[in-house]
From TrEMBL:
GO terms for biological process: proteolysis; signal transduction. Keywords: Hydrolase, Protease, Serine protease, Signal. NCBIfam families: prc (TIGR00225). Residues 464-489 have a biased composition (Basic and acidic residues). This is PDZ domain-containing protein. Pfam families: CtpB_N-like, PDZ_2, Peptidase_S41. Residues 457-489 are annotated as: Disordered. Residues 1-29 form the signal peptide. One of its GO terms (cellular component) is outer membrane-bounded periplasmic space. It comes from the Bacteria. Residues 89-157 form the PDZ domain.
């Protein structure tokens, strides 16, 4: 069992600024390269290193040159491979444990600026009303233009109770927005749950961390203690950027038949060719006993809806894909992010490492999610008027140097707008929208999920598929075709 746990790879999404990194560690044994080294190219590298040392306008530290060379080499591969220096490696380890010091924003890079992908719920950034799509142009007095994403992330990190001033460029705002935020030690509560109305429960996972499976099991037990006759369950994975692979396997295993395949991976190394099952040894690395053992039997058959959107990525796509393949749940929402690659942490010194893409992952039916994402069974946007700030989000297929999908045609943004006037209308609506509190009475997608579970009509929207240029509706919104899947025996 110990050997099997060591072979579990890492699932991650992008860079995290002041947030818990959506990553996990792998103790997978590093294989020695057998291919001959390119001696001539390495000689050129050494020559350039010597030239810089001798001829550059001022002295350059050896460590800085070599570190930047490694960083650039790894970063050139794909958007998710990266060199982790001492600080980044420490932050990654803290992130998987569910606590960190920072602002609480998931970020990427666009046009040389830091782009906010999503603020983490209940974080300083969330309370400051930072929005997806905002561009950070200045950190205190330092312009972001010219900084690498890693450099910008380091500036946003800091000690608890220290301040940082962000200058924000927001689409359709004439003037920059200046916001001062106090850094906090943020403990991410990755699992939330409640009875939203008699007979119907809502279970939200905002990120997959080491404690997620145990926390989810406790929440489910609490739900059934409140209402032993739950008639429908909504698993909310919206804006869940991913996280540790055992967490995704454990969450899937809670609702699937025992021992079935949940996800498979494939890459160059023999250890990257693996199938992961709904078994304790694949999800309970840190737990004593099986955290799912005391779940009520009804959880295996209760009618389910899984909510996803453009911010659902990586580990959350593994869960949605598995439940969709087994027809265990109806997927409702909008097309997910499309990150179907596995990153493995290779430690190269006591306090540094390389995060390297080592495999693609596949759903139980062999589907690749990479650069495509999960296409919902019922396409329902965030509000009755449109998809809110999701229309501004970047997806995996939009990232430069993204890994290709080896199974199916790639799909770009889930919502493709052909007319400039329509795009401006959607942006204007998104700008006016208030931050949505998931699980509240104003949660439109949750309301539609509950309608589906009750057998009532669901207000679906047309989804456009970029690679075909066609409009299609996942399913009819008629009462007859919007009933939940039959209970599994």
């Amino acid at each position: 069992m110990g050997k099997r746990l060591k072979n579990i790879g890492l699932i991650s999404l992008g860079m995290i600024a002041g947030v818990a990194a959506s990553m996990q560690f792998s103790a997978m044994a590093q294989k020695n390269a057998t291919a001959p080294l390119p001696v001539e190219e390495l000689r050129q590298l050494a020559d350039v290193f010597g030239l810089i040392k001798s001829d550059y306008v001022e002295p350059v530290d050896d460590n800085k040159l070599l570190t930047e060379a490694i960083s650039g080499m790894v970063a050139s591969l794909d958007p998710h491979s990266a060199y982790l220096d001492k600080k980044s490696f420490k932050e990654l380890r803290e992130g998987t444990q569910g606590k960190f010091v920072g602002l609480g924003i998931e970020v990427g890079m666009e046009d040389g600026y830091v782009k906010i992908i999503s603020p983490i719920e209940d974080s300083p950034a969330y309370r400051a009303n930072l929005k997806p799509g905002d561009l950070i142009t200045r950190l205190d007095s330092t312009p972001v233009k010219g900084l690498t994403l890693d450099e910008a992330v380091k500036k946003m990190r800091g000690e608890p109770n220290t301040k940082i001033t962000l200058t924000i460029s927001r689409k359709n705002e004439d003037k920059p927005i200046v916001v001062t935020i106090v850094r906090e030690t943020i403990k991410v509560q990755s699992v939330k749950a409640k009875i939203v109305e008699p007979g119907y429960a809502w279970l939200r996972i905002s990120q997959f961390q080491e404690p997620t499976v145990e926390d989810m099991a406790k929440k489910i037990q609490s739900l059934y203690a409140q209402d032993p006759n739950i008639k429908g369950l909504v698993l909310d994975l919206r804006n869940d950027p991913g996280g540790v692979l055992p967490g995704a396997i454990g969450v899937s295993a809670a609702f699937l038949p025992k021992d079935v395949p949940v996800v498979s991976t494939n890459g160059q190394l023999p250890d990257s060719k693996a199938i992961f099952y709904a078994k304790r040894e694949f999800y309970a690395a840190r737990a004593v006993g099986d955290p799912l053992a005391k779940l009520p039997e009804a959880v295996k058959s209760v009618p389910m809806v899984v909510l996803v959107n453009t911010g659902s990525a990586s580990a959350s796509e593994i869960v949605a894909g598995a439940l969709q393949d087994y027809k265990r749940a109806t997927i409702i929402g909008t097309q997910s992010f499309g990150k179907g690659s596995v990153q493995t942490i290779r430690q190269i010194s006591a306090d540094t490492a390389v995060k390297l893409t080592t495999a693609r992952y596949y759903t139980p039916n062999g589907r690749s999610i990479q650069a495509k994402g999960i296409v919902p069974d019922l396409n329902v946007e965030e509000t009755a008027d449109g998809d809110g700030f999701n229309v501004l989000r970047t997806r995996e297929a939009d990232l430069q140097k993204h890994l290709t999908n080896d199974k199916e045609a790639e799909v770009g943004k889930g919502k493709v707008v052909d007319e400039l006037e329509e795009e401006q209308r959607l942006v204007a609506l998104a700008k006016k929208a208030k931050p949505l509190e998931y699980g509240s009475k104003d949660d439109y997608q949750l309301a539609q999920a509950l309608n589906h579970l009750k057998g009532l009509p669901v207000k679906t929207t047309l989804a456009k598929v970029e690679d075909k240029g066609e409009e299609s509706e996942s399913k009819s919104d008629s009462k007859a075709e919007s009933k939940p899947e039959p209970k599994k025996k």
